[in-house]
Amino acid sequence: MTATPDQGALQRPLQMTINGEHKTLTVHPWTTLLDLLREQLDLAGTKKGCDHGQCGACTVLRDGKRINACLTLAVMCEGAELVTIEGLADGDRLHPMQQAFITQDAFQCGYCTPGQICSAVGLANEGRAHNRDDIRELMSGNLCRCGAYSNIVAAVEEALPLIKGARP
Amino acid sequence: MNSVVGTPMDRVDGAAKVTGQARYAADYPQEGLLHASVVSSTIARGRVVKVNSEKALQVPGVVAVLDHTNRPHVSSYDDDYSDDDAAEGSPFRPLFNDRVLYSSQPLALVIADTLELARYAGSLVTIEYSQQAHQSDLLAALQQTHEAPAETPEPRGDFAGHFAGADAKVDVTYLTANEHHNPMEPHASTVCYQADGSLVIHDKTQGTQNCQEYLHNIFGLPKDKLRVKAAFVGGAFGSGLRPQYQLPLAVMAALHLKRSVRLTLTRQQMFTFGYRPRTQQRLRLGVDKRGALVAIGHDAIGQTSRFEDFTEHLVEWSGMLYQCDNVALSYRLAPLDVYTPLDMRAPGAGSGVLALECAMDELASAAGLDPVELRKRNFASHNGNEGKPYSSKELLACYEQGAERFGWARRQATPGSMRDGNQRIGWGMAGGVWEAMQMKASAKASLDSTGHLTVSSATTDIGTGTYTVMTQIAADAAGIDVGKVTFKLGDSSLPTAPLQGGSFTVSSVGSAVRQACLTLRERLIERARQQRPDLASEADTAFTLENGQVKAGKHSVPLAELLAVDPQQCLEVQVEANPDDKRKPYSTATHSAVFVEVQVDDDLGTVRVTRVVSAVAAGRVVNPKTARSQILGGVVWGVGMALHEESQTDHALGRILNHNLAEYHVPVNADIGDIDVIFVEEDDRVVNALGSKGVGEIGVVGVAAAVANAIYHATGKRVREFPITLDKLI
């Protein structure tokens, strides 16, 4: 192989809604949703921890469902409604899950936090966490190396009743 | 004004962190930013014959490929690559020459317009090697060791004689595993190339000034052209104590191209630098009929690289935690073709106290004593290594309060005697200890005419809560409402601070912040008295600052009036705080007692830690909320050390096999049961003026041993090779 085909010619149009805002974008077919958010749209709140779907730091909500942005190609999001950590609060009013994370001190370094919060909101939408053990199990796709798990469980437990049925 | 030190305050940076506004090293956008990607060695030892980068350079959008033959000029001297946490020897010099010192060593750097292109082009770079035989297995190198260049305490008394004559004794050897820090944020540097050729760098580090000095020395750039920032650090646990190779590589690229460059390591590359080293530790403990320790021997061998002798405080703990007159400690190193180990959360104590406290549990069994009772009988009010009394040591209260909360009295002593259906229940405990150090540190306090106080120091906040606790300390010392205080950190241009590590940030930087704010308050009062004679007779304690007014008794004066004489209408104080001489006659340390319940499945050997009580004596706790989180996190680390974490090496290749988060196991949410944290009251007037000892490490120490001891209690099996995976239990 001596040369790569012209990069520009390979770009694809993409339309999606991100945090309530309609976007018309042009992306390479190999660009992940995570790199699109971080490198092209300056939505750097979504974090890259492993790039392999192993840590959950890049969790965002697509049509209300939690997904790993690193395992999702941007072109797979045509017509999707995407919510990232930057889109959860209503102006200065924090989403109940965000507030609960502060109140329960459910983070330390904060790097896994956007993914944890999006994942927890996705969990609320799923409506299948009924007790602490459920929360522990269903939040286990999001690693926290600081070890804030106990407080994450407390925060999710606190916020769940406040957001039942409300899809962000 | 009510004191805020000692109250559980929410993190001041909480809103930034839950809304995605907190920016970490790789989160800064930059006009015309280039992306770099590292090409790593596939051999463990040898020389690079040729780096073939032609194919990579043909990819449109690839800007350059750097290797040791075409990189910008760098220093060759070892001293220039040294840093505040350097080990003894010759520090690693990235892209310096053709020598390959370990597998996955960075050998080339591809720089391109986009991240995807840089990584793709990196896959096109091929490297020709001249390969040499390597050794990466500690257990194969136990005969090629040398004494560790550490200040290991001299033997005291007659260990051999008293061990031989002990009424009950154990002679046991433990193996601990290599572990990698794996902070959630990969190491990254965004180098912003300024028009004047100076560099502003967002780096993942625990010491911005350490990085600035390092770059200054190796690139010969003046310090005023190098500013290193770390406003937010996505965990580090020691991985940021030394400048890691992404920093000099990104700077090389920026200098070579005169462009801004970002280099983020992949998760796989997070396994290509420092780590907690694998150890073999032999413990020999003996007690007399009364259960008093008469002999302690602790002989450790740790792995290191061939280029540096990494040492940690591995065996000292065995000479200081308990009262014993006959102690022999030794510490040797085995050099291997691997990267140099690195301090990792509770370095030394993590592994050393693990071995000591497992051996104490085995000794309790041998002597027929309850594990708590054995420890109580051997309580030491003096540090035997130093011959000094502890400034405070409420360890007995830790044992008592921890045992009470856990329900230890209901424990049935016989192993395997407690069960719940198919689950064997085990209750184990261990003690913990960590030093309470203080380093020299500076801080600046600045009060503006609106009454807002800004305090700054070049320390970092790796998740420990530095922003928050310094805000609390400043507010109390200055007598200003905590909402009117801002603490700035993570910038090499701020007043000098030590590395953030070793649990000494509150003690060091906190002392500087306190002094700066106390002095600022004194100066403000002095000025008020000078300018307004009606305030002159008021006592210092009567002065308050609220709503832009300095008040005392019935009188008040606008702050703006008092500050009008200052050039910037603000009052500024900078101080340097040093450890007080009154510390010298004492040993200072934090302590803990950890109680653990495990469930071990009869058929599958799976272990679940269902319950942990950690009782900690760490002096005065500045913020019980964030401090509790530190201990919770430490417990999770201890569980990982006991059950999960191991960087496994394929010794045929000399390379780490499980270099990802799917195969290098860290505890997940479902692995963690209930954790109860107790801060035992401890009044220490010696350690520093805050009376606070720091809590970053103590939460880890002892936990893994308590888990192992609980597993023994559940199963009757002593597993002495960590982590205790299920294959070792069935």
Topology, please?
The complex is a heterodimer of chains A (168) and B (730).
Chain A lengths: L11 E7 L2 E7 L5 H8 L18 E4 L2 E4 L12 E3 L12 H8 L9 H14 L5 H7 L10 H15 L5
Parallel strand pairs in A: 1-5
Antiparallel strand pairs in A: 1-2, 3-4, 3-5
Helix pairs in contact in A: 2-5, 3-5
Chain B lengths: L13 H5 L15 E7 L5 E7 L1 H4 L4 E5 L21 E2 L9 E2 L5 E7 L2 H10 L1 E6 L14 E2 L11 H6 L3 E9 L11 E6 L5 E5 L4 H12 L6 E4 L16 H12 L3 E4 L14 E9 L5 E13 L2 E2 L17 E10 L12 H19 L3 H7 L4 E2 L4 E2 L5 H12 L12 E2 L2 E13 L5 E8 L4 E4 L9 H13 L6 E4 L16 H27 L12 E3 L2 E4 L2 E4 H5 L6 E8 L11 E13 L5 E11 L6 H20 L5 E2 L4 E2 L15 E8 L23 H13 L15
Parallel strand pairs in B: 1-13, 11-12, 15-17, 23-24, 30-33
Antiparallel strand pairs in B: 1-6, 2-5, 2-7, 3-6, 4-16, 8-17, 9-14, 10-11, 10-13, 14-15, 18-19, 20-21, 21-29, 22-23, 22-28, 25-26, 26-27, 29-30, 31-32
Q: pLDDT under 50 segments of chain A (min length 5)?
A: none
The fold-level CATH name of the largest domain in chain A is Ubiquitin-like (UB roll)
CATH superfamily of the largest domain in chain A, called what?
Answer: Beta-grasp domain
Major β-sheet profile of chain A: 5 strands, mixed
* CATH domain class name of the largest domain in chain B: Alpha Beta
